[in-house]
Amino acid sequence: SPEMVIAESHLLITDGQGIMHAYKAEEPINFKAVSLEPVEQVPGEAKAGYEGGEEVQLQFTVENTSPVDYRNIPIVLTEPDGTTIPGGTIDLAAGERKTVVPWTVEVPPSDSLLYQATINPEGHPQEITAEVKPRIDNTAEVELNKKSHDIEVVSLSVETPTDAGKVQNIEAVIVNNTGSELPEVVVQWQEDSQVIREEKVSFAVGETKTLSFAWRAPDREDIINLAVLVDPAELLPDTNRANNFKEQYITVRKQVQRSCTEPLERASWDVTYNIIEGYNKKRVSYTEWVTDYNNPIWKPVTVTYNEALSVEVKVNTKQGIATDPKNPKESDRESRGSWAIIPYAEELSKKLGRRVDPNEITRAGYGFEVTVVTDYQNDWETKVPEGLEDTAQPIGGTFNGPKQVFAEFYDTNNRFVTAVEMERVSGSKGTGKATWKLPEKKYTFQDRTTVFERKHYTSPDIKDGDYTVLVRVEYAGKNGLYTCKQKVVKIWGSMYDDFYTAPVPRNRR
After folding, report:
1. Which residues pair with 433 in a beta bridge?
2. Disulfide check for 142: which of 36, 42, 78, 320 has CB 3.0–4.6 Å away?
3. CA angle (193, 194, 195) in 5-degree steps
4. pLDDT per residue over 412-432, tens digit each?
5. SS3 of residue 395 by DSSP
């Protein structure tokens, strides 16, 4: 059977009789019209528009893409009314690109201002007939005095933050920068990239309009992306679609009453960002397209953020500090019962098979400290998507740790005693750990001794048993995280069990 081999620009075929046939591929003869442009009067500054009757020079850039030199290639210009103006001929070496200025035209007072230049037109007396057909890239065009079309979203106004379920007016200011009337412009409103409203609006020349509609916030805590988009289907010939879009974020608040029976220690929420992921193309000649940086491609990206709250509760009766009733000291005041409580805790540990902390045991009538360590964490705006032109931008703002921490106390009969709001004594109110303690209070004892302590004192009349501390940590972060933790202090005996005779200092006699 025949065998084929492609080597460089040759096709080699060996037939069934063993004879090799060589075929050489040659590039077709082709002349390309690269561009047709007005000659800039001031280098680097293109003129925005031309008046009727004004003379304009046109420059024509062409290229010989074939491997053969050619001379006397004809070029012509077709005016808006169809008149053909000869441009003479041009010589092009193989692969050569050249720009010539063969025409000066007078801009007519007409709405049709499209000029087309063609190299090697079919049927021309000097046509190079060897050029390949069809000739799809032989013509370039330019539109002089092209009317600029630009519809712009100037602003989008919202009220933020707002409350769940609340209705507010969303306002957008839109201007017609076009030099003509626009009888029908589609305006689209979006919520988290979903269309929620669409209307058709007419604009006079240069007219600015304020559009608004009543928007109801969702019945939940959220961060909403609201956007307005003009001409979403790109039906209008807009020269700058980059200004057809505006967005705003609305923070929706909702106070949810939580309880210890319905705690919320973890939550997540979604945020929709809009990024520019690329740009559309625009055609500058029959075969050449360029990137149109005034026509961005927007893409919604939804990101999920998370937050969490953890809590640790500690109690300290100070009864783990050893004392000797036979040798009392002034410093024994907070640990007066430890002489009996420490041995009791050791005995209880053996009985239960686990360590019992004497600092979680006390006598009726004594006090104890409560320490709460909260840890609030979130990953807010650590995942902002990255697009072109610095999109998207962070929304901003922070979410903080708990607003309040309460300690509720229940006696050994499980009867409510009191509730105390705790104080943050260290740590940040934002993310991270914070330490909370009972407020400092002044206490005066029977011997007129005065101390300042962060303690809760029990009644000397309660019976033995479990004295419960219920800690409520309220409303942290974006979603109002809420949790409750319980800690037990064992009451064993009474403060009166620890009375003993102590020497009276000479200065108190």
Report:
1. 375
2. 36
3. 120
4. 999 999 999 999 999 989 999
5. coil
